[in-house]
């Protein structure tokens, strides 16, 4: 084997003009070559990626290394931590003989470091609470998530229209359920006059599916205060970007809630972020561990929506990285859009395994230096086959990479350390107080128990009149308008998405 030729090709392939991060060193014949580093240009980090490999081969540590490097460059990270094994990044690691030897071979500096971490939650875990309102979801997305048929989706759109027309803010699941009950009972006559017949079979089906979602604890997620995506993009006093860890240990058996949440989050990020100019680095990198869970129970429609958003979100400077055991866990339409590939070892026990390995190797650039399909099964822990996109967007030569060791702690934080971290959080007070202000549920209850005009009527008047606005808008009015406009905006954006997708 021509070592010089290999060294030259890797050096040429992984040298970039603009800024980059280093993930490890190139290996040949099972040994790293000193000073031959595998780099990723910051510029193409928004071109998404895949990190795959069997259990225990080093995927999580690879994300830890990537996150550390990104944080150091001031690029914020959001990590979907499903196994709960990522919190150690908040504390510095320890040098040991194994790590020193590893780094000495590559001639890569190792220095224990801690990184700024924010712990977030959407479920029963302790942490800063991420929430979104039903309005923000909009009828299209909600229908996709609930897997509604066309008729039922039509009814969902009607419900949103009715709530818009009648100033009924839809914040949580309670609101939505109340509105559905109302339009099938007390409000039925009025609604049919205004909007035409609403089939009770459809409303019944929607209600059942909402309850199913509720049983996965989705009520913890829907409501206020809805999370401001900008809060994910904070930089600490030392210029390091925050690594936001979303603790999802209890979501493994709730794939529907997880895909709902992921899609909502991506839609929200898409809607919030401006088109990115040529800043040369991503605004945010999102790692999705156990990514097969998002795809597992997703309907065709939901998968299409995910595929579309993956395609579009790039232009907003967001990089998405899917982590899963096998590349075949990711649908082809998504896989085709992933520029970076870090493939840890796969096991070849069954015929199915061998097929997956064959497929994985065929998705890599051809190489004269490795027998790709053989090497995939022979990689050591913390080693991976890597190809990234260079600054021109062309795949770099395939390289076996010895990943550097995380500079932060490889083990998880203790419960006391976790509590300490949450106590320190600057976001905790903003998001963790329960808000349940007057919304559809309360307004309809009020309407049913009294005939007096409610505040709702006032809102309607002030919004519809062409005369100058009343001097004193109540807090309530302002809030309603805020919710309604943001919802309309997001739904508008989704309309665009749907159109783009249909083309
Ligand atoms: N880059 C690395 N540097 C040092 N040790 C590593 C590295 N990657 C993996 N390891 C070792 O392998 C173990 C398993 O890695 P992990 O990332 O948890 O695997 P996976 O997420 O694929 O199940 C780690 O606990 C660590 O001891
Ligand atoms: Mg892991």
List keywords for this structure.
503 residues, alpha/beta, Rossmann fold, 12-stranded mixed β-sheet, 13% strand, binds adenosine-5'-diphosphate, binds magnesium ion
The total beta strand count reads 12
Beta fraction: 5-15%
Largest sheet: 12 strands, mixed
Strand order of the largest sheet: 2-1-12-11-10-3-9-8-4-7-5-6
Heterogens: adenosine-5'-diphosphate, magnesium ion
Our Rg estimate from Cα atoms comes to 25 Å
Shape: elongated
Tell me, rounded to a whole number, the average pLDDT: 86
Structurally, the number of domains stands at 2
The CATH architecture of the largest domain is 3-Layer(aba) Sandwich
CATH topology of the largest domain, anyone?
Rossmann fold
Protein name: DUF853 family protein
Domain Helicase HerA-like C-terminal: 38-464
Pfam family, one: HerA_C
Can you describe this structure?
The protein has 503 residues and is α/β, with parallel strands linked by helices. The chain has 2 domains: 3-130 and 230-413, Rossmann fold (3-Layer(aba) Sandwich), CATH 3.40.50.300; 134-222 and 435-502, no CATH class. Helix content is 44%, strand content 13%. The chain has 19 helices and 12 strands. It has a 12-stranded mixed sheet, sandwiched between helices. A hairpin with a 2-residue loop joins strand 1 (20-28) and strand 2 (31-41). Helix 13 packs across helix 14 (372-378). The longest helix is centred in the C-terminal third of the chain and has 28 residues, at 475-502. It starts with a helix and ends with a helix. Residues 53, 55-61, 65, 381-382, 403, 405, 410 line the site of adenosine-5'-diphosphate (ADP). This is DUF853 family protein. InterPro entries: HerA_C (IPR033186), P-loop_NTPase (IPR027417), T4SS_component (IPR051162). Pfam families: HerA_C. Residues 38-464 form the Helicase HerA-like C-terminal domain.
């Amino acid at each position: 084997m021509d070592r010089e030729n290999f060294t030259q090709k890797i050096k040429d392939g992984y040298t970039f003009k603009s800024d980059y991060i280093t993930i490890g060193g190139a290996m040949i014949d099972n040994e790293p070559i000193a000073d031959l580093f595998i780099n990723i240009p910051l510029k193409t980090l928004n071109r998404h990626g895949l990190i795959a490999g069997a259990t225990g081969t080093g995927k999580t540590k690879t994300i830890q290394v990537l996150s550390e490097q990104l944080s150091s460059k001031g690029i914020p990270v959001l990590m979907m931590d499903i196994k709960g094994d990522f919190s150690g990044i908040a504390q510095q690691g320890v040098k040991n003989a194994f790590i020193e030897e590893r780094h000495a071979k590559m001639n890569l500096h190792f220095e224990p470091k801690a990184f700024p971490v924010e712990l977030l939650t959407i479920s029963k875990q302790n942490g800063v609470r991420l929430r979104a309102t039903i309005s923000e979801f909009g009828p299209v997305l909600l229908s996709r998530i609930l897997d509604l048929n066309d008729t039922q989706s039509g009814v969902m759109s009607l419900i949103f229209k009715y709530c818009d027309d009648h100033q009924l803010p839809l914040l949580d699941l309670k609101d939505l359920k109340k509105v559905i009950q109302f339009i099938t009972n007390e409000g039925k006559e009025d609604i049919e006059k205004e909007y035409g017949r609403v089939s009770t079979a459809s409303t019944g089906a929607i209600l059942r599916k909402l309850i199913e979602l509720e049983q996965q604890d989705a009520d913890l997620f829907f409501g206020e205060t809805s999370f401001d995506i900008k809060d994910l993009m904070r930089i600490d006093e030392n210029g390091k970007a925050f690594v936001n860890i979303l603790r999802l240990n209890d979501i493994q058996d709730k794939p529907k809630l997880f895909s709902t949440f992921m899609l909502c989050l991506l839609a929200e990020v898409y809607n919030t972020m401006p088109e990115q100019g040529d800043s040369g680095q991503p605004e945010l990198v999102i790692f999705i561990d156990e990514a097969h869970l998002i795809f597992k129970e997703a309907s065709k429609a939901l998968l299409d929506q995910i595929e579309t958003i993956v395609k579009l979100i790039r232009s907003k400077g967001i990089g998405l990285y899917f982590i899963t055991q096998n590349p075949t866990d990711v649908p082809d339409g998504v896989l085709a859009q992933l520029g970076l590939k870090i493939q840890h070892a796969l096991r070849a026990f069954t015929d199915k395994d061998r097929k997956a390995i064959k497929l994985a190797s065929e998705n890599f650039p051809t190489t004269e230096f490795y027998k790709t399909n053989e090497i995939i099964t022979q990689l050591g822990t913390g080693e991976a086959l890597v190809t990234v996109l260079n600054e021109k967007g062309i795949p770099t030569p395939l390289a076996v990479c010895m990943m550097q060791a995380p500079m932060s702690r490889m083990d998880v934080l203790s419960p006391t350390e976790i509590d300490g971290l949450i106590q320190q959080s600057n976001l905790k007070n903003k998001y963790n107080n329960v808000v349940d202000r007057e919304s559809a549920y309360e307004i309809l209850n009020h309407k049913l128990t009294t005939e007096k005009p409610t505040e709702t009527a006032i809102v309607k008047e002030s919004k519809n009149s062409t005369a100058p606005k009343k001097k004193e808008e109540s807090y309530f009015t302002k809030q309603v308008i805020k919710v309604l406009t943001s919802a309309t905006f997001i739904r508008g954006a989704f309309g665009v998405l749907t159109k783009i997708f249909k083309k």
